[in-house]
Write a structure and sequence with these properties.
By secondary structure, the protein is mainly α. The protein contains 2 helices and no strands. It has one domain.
Length: 71
Amino acid sequence: MIIEAIKYMFLGMGIVFLFLYLMVVVLEWQHKLLLKYFPEHFEEEKPKSDRRERLKKVAAITAALHHMRNS
């Protein structure tokens, strides 16, 4: 009975492993396909190093923290 349970355990783990492996392969294939036909949607935006933008973010974070502490 224990041997049978071990067989089913390995069968179940094997099926899960194969499914996850197949899912990774399909998602990688899909990613390559999308990059090939729609490259403009996946281009990374260059981060703005503008000082004004950084100061706006700091001000927004500070205001949010102040609001959280006082409410």
